[in-house]
What does this fold into?
Amino acid sequence: MLQCIVVTPERTVFDRPAEFVALTLYDGEIGVAPEHAPMIGRLGCGEMRVVNQGQTERYYIEGGFVEVLGDVVSVLTRRAAAASEIDEAVVGEQLSAARARPATTPEAIQIRDRAIAQARAQLRICRRT
Amino acid sequence: MAKARVLDRRRKSIRGIRKITRTMELISTAQFKRAMNRATAAAAYTRRITALVGHLARSGLEVSHPLLEPRPEPKQATLLVLSANRGMCAGYNAGVLRQAVTRYNELANVASEVSLEVVGKRGISAFRFRKIPIDEAFTHFEDRPSFAEVDVLAERYLQDFTAGRLDRLDVAFTRFESASHRQAVVETLLPLGSLQGAEDKAPARETQYEFLPSAASILDEVVPMSFRVRLFKCFLDAAVSEQIARMVAMKTATENADGMISHLSMAYNRARQGQITGELLEIIGGADALNG
It folds into this structure.
């Protein structure tokens, strides 16, 4: 069994046992099962799935790090929300607002792209339910 | 009857004040508990990120990052002052402002440009009174600052620092040490100087980590994140300290009001008694004159 701990700067979102955890890294998805090798990874924006007793729970996580040591998976992220908490309409608005934002400097473009990527990742999670 | 009535009126108004201070004490006690819970909940992240940095350092990675390197001759400095939106909290605002003004003058000597950013109405009016120009003022941070709100500020500082528009960031706030001990301090947050946990070089039972994508890339992300979290912690500490300061101040005020009420009650009773005695004497005197 794994122990999955998700922490944001504001609080510990949850700390509970899991059989399997799937996470979005900066460039793709990774699955963590018990007896995983020690690992520190950079997270991207996307879905996290926690499987426990046949039940899959889905969360949206926004960047940060994951550390696997022994059978403890610690996820440090800026924001974590259960898939059911995400409102598709609100995220859709965020996406169109981000798209409409003028970006003329390289930094502004970077910020805009990040906002778009975050909104899209949330939309994908909403639509999968 | 005049003197006794005046005393009674004063006693009544002090009872009214006592009611208000007592209510404020109760409110700030509740808010303090809430703020305290938030601060403890937030400590988990700091603990974990410190452990993560320790693991990175132990894997033989040289911990270096532009944000950590000191800049010998700062040109542009920013001072961020965290004060309260409301008063009634004893020396809380005064303490922070005293530290802030001293540091402001020091910075003005060292750096060519100092910009002042103030959070909280009390701080804003104090600097306005001293005729020190404020570059940015914020009043939207209430008793419960959220990470997202603070992150907006952190993001701007990080961008300015990397772009060379900012060489030094100091934050004046009240550090929360324990329920009975708080201290107004000024901390330099940029450059960060060192990461907590980075000095931990002890070759504890070596765990070989796999880094995805690489230790250096993770460090690139960890350093700005530590800065954000430290700035957030300053806000949380300030919020907790403010509530404690208000709680203590209002408790004292309530006790003082109690003392005053009992003092006035005594004076009032004495005045009333004196008046009754006076009236009795008059009656007796009158009766004696009739009999005599």
Notes: The CA atoms of residues 21 and 50 of chain A lie 5 Å apart. Helices of chain A lie at 88-100, 106-128. The radius of gyration of chain A is 15 Å.
